[in-house]
Design a protein that fits this description.
This protein has about 170 residues and is an all-alpha fold. It is about 75% helix and about 0% strand. Strands 1-2 form a two-stranded antiparallel ribbon. Strand 1 and strand 2 (about 15) form a beta hairpin. It is elongated, with a radius of gyration of 19 Å.
């Protein structure tokens, strides 16, 4: 077992993408909860859910960003993949800043149970950037093929097993 498997994941099973799911899901919930409060669908509970989801999303963002940075450091500097991945990183860090500001300025809103314009606007900007960043992250994987093994004839039972084997390591270039 190689040491980098602990931080980057195994060939064909990288760590960063599943963490992005948790981060995106949490921020999406925060956005929906903020809108639920603003549109009067739910009041106090939606505001509390919004703020708590922002805080949880910030925690997930930290872990997700570290694993993304570790992957980013393996990319050839200046390559087209690097340019796309760098854009993805900048946009996602920008989204995180807006969600952080929403959590900071929204703490009083959390306590009073009412999402105000500032919290909503910061959350919506963060969500817009999150969406753009997700699009760019998709380009890193689905256009540039980063961390994709492309073992199309791999038996399903071996493909699903997270343990590395020589074919997976060769396909990843490990």
């Amino acid at each position: 077992m190689k040491l980098n498997y602990l931080v980057r994941g195994l060939p064909g099973h990288p760590v960063h993408p599943p963490l992005t799911d948790a981060t995106i899901g949490t921020y999406t919930f925060a956005t929906v909860a903020a809108l639920a409060d603003v549109f009067g669908i739910s009041d106090n509970a939606a505001t509390q859910g919004w703020w708590l989801a922002l805080v949880l999303g910030l925690i997930f963002s930290g872990i997700t960003a570290i694993t993304g940075l570790i992957d980013w450091l393996t990319i050839i500097w200046g390559s087209e993949l690097w340019k796309t991945a760098t854009s993805h990183m900048i946009v996602m860090l920008s989204a995180t800043v807006f969600f952080l500001l929403a959590a900071i300025f929204g703490h009083d809103e959390f306590k009073t149970g009412n999402v105000e314009a500032d919290g909503l606007i910061l959350t919506l900007i963060g969500f817009g950037l999150l969406t753009l960043g997700g699009w760019l992250g998709g380009a890193v994987v689905f256009v540039h093929g980063m961390r994709v093994l492309k073992l199309v004839d791999e038996p399903a039972t071996r493909a699903a097993v997270p343990m590395p084997h020589p074919e997976k390591e060769r396909a990843e270039g490990s």
